Amino acid sequence: MKVVLFCGGYGMRMRSGEADSPPKPMQMVGPRPLIWHVMRYYAHYGHTEFILCLGYGAHHIKNFFLTYQETMSNDFVIRDGQVELLHSDIADWTITFVDTGLESAIGERLRRVRPYLDGDEVFLANYSDVLTDAPLNRMIEQFTASGAAASMMIVPPQSSFHCVDVLPGGEVKQITPVSKLPIWENGGYFVLTQEIFEHLPENGDLVEDVCGALAAIGRLYGYQHDGFWKPADTFKERAELDAGYHRGERPWMVWERAAS
Q1: Separation of alpha carbons 176 and 196, rounded Å
Q2: 170-198, pLDDT tens digit by residue?
Q3: I need a surface site. Which of 4, 28, 70, 198 has the fewest CB within 10 A?
């Protein structure tokens, strides 16, 4: 299946204020940027056709792949002055780079790359800034069995805040960590069909417009995942992923477990 990656936003919660700082998907986790980790996850499950929805910082992403160095994450031999790779990351990937605008909403970015889906009935989509160990094959199988028009992975709430139950007079009756509430939140991994475009207006949003409309008619499936899931929406979250990588705690790197 083709994989649409949304990687054109400003990423304001991670930026340092520099005029030309790299976009969020290009922030590093170990020796590679976030978007590489996301793409390796999909490639591990056999999905190697990527459509990148570019916007802010597009040249950073283009340059990364145009000057990609396989030796950074693969063993190799130097023989007679020539590099011979023992393994390869992206040699079998097809990557389509599409300018979808600086200010476009995610839904609008998806509308603009629709021609590059080649009419495929089912495709995958991702925010490019969330890592997980969710079993993608199972996610797709459950979606297919559901007969729905779209699926989103949903995860337990990650917030460290607390909800407070208070009476009109100010008396607090109960304090509950958000993480303990019986609710789920959008995990950013989607399985979609062409039907979603029937509910996607110009400049629309994938979640609020499309998923909201499909949920209202019983056409949206939620894949519940309570394993590893972590966004890199802020500098702190990205730093935590990077620290985990260097400690050898990399549950999202499912391809490493398969290799071992």
Answers
A1: 36
A2: 889 888 877 777 789 999 999 999 999 99
A3: 198
